[in-house]
Amino acid sequence: MWADNPAMRVRFTKMQGAGNDFVVLDERRGPLGLSAAQYRFLADRHFGVGADQILSVRPSPAAGLDFEYVIHNADGGEVEHCGNGARCFVRYVHDKGLTTHNPVRVKVHHGAISLALNPDGRVTVDMGPPIFDLAQVPFAPAGLASRPSGGWVAWPLPLAGGEEAPVAVLSMGNPHAVLRVADVDAAPVGTWGPQIEGHACFPRRVNAGFLQVLDRSHVRLRVYERGAGETLACGTGACAAVVAGIRQGWLDARVDVQTRGGVLTIEWAGNPDAPVFMTGPATTVFEGEIDLPDLS
Ligand SMILES: N[C@@H](CCC[C@H](N)C(=O)O)C(=O)O
């Protein structure tokens, strides 16, 4: 599958946050200039290291910020945001002694976010406010009629075989479609997930969340991630699902989200300008070096 002609030896740190796993690269001295195929190689669980996303730590591009971090999905595409990655990022820069700042302010694709390491070792991220403007998601519901549902609007996405997925649509800096289901274990994540991810209404594709409400402060969630498939947890997906549930009137302002890889706590005051806060674990798994093939 992969050519066997090493072009570059790369040091990396393998990390995970609630089971969403990452290869972290130190690019403070400058971008390594990896191709999409080389990101795919790093993410490959058989030929590379294995990861859902690759995180690149870069120097601050502006005064008042500590670093920039850039995210690539396992499919090699660059993306705007990654909640679990943000927590691992701050754990990385603290464990490596790259900063003593707490909180750490970091540039991501769509702006800056603030990340705080808590005394219990968990990390709290100020994810900024959710984005409801459909053009910004981006979501182009050509020909679809929305259905009011509680304080929200559900879009009935047509799927194969005449099925329909009523989704709430919003952005946490990256696009999300959230669907309420009775039982996440029985939800059609493997069949509906890829159809929603690549649906024509989402010109940049979308992350598809399947939300089960247990009570007003406890939910279960599975996410079929854009560019990575189903992961054990998705931080931005947890934020999007809780925001959708609060807007619908199903949830209170503080919710524990049980994913397949761990629990994330999401807080949102409910007004459109209020930031979403996400708290959860971030762990280093191992460090290593790998020879990257010359893949363009
Ligand atoms: N795992 C992430 C999200 C990573 C990016 C996502 N797949 C996308 O394409 O937007 C998280 O924890 O938020």
From TrEMBL:
Pathway: Amino-acid biosynthesis; L-lysine biosynthesis via DAP pathway; DL-2,6-diaminopimelate from LL-2,6-diaminopimelate: step 1/1. It is found in: Cytoplasm. It comes from Hydrogenophaga electricum. It holds the Pfam family DAP_epimerase. The gene is dapF. The keyword Nucleotidyltransferase does not apply. It is an enzyme of class 5 (isomerase). The active site is at 82, 82 (proton donor), 234 (proton acceptor). This is Diaminopimelate epimerase. Its EC number is 5.1.1.7. PANTHER family: DIAMINOPIMELATE EPIMERASE, DIAMINOPIMELATE EPIMERASE, CHLOROPLASTIC. Catalyzes the stereoinversion of LL-2,6-diaminopimelate (L,L-DAP) to meso-diaminopimelate (meso-DAP), a precursor of L-lysine and an essential component of the bacterial peptidoglycan. The record marks 176, 225 as: Could be important to modulate the pK values of the two catalytic cysteine residues. It comes from the Bacteria. It catalyses: (2S,6S)-2,6-diaminopimelate = meso-2,6-diaminopimelate.
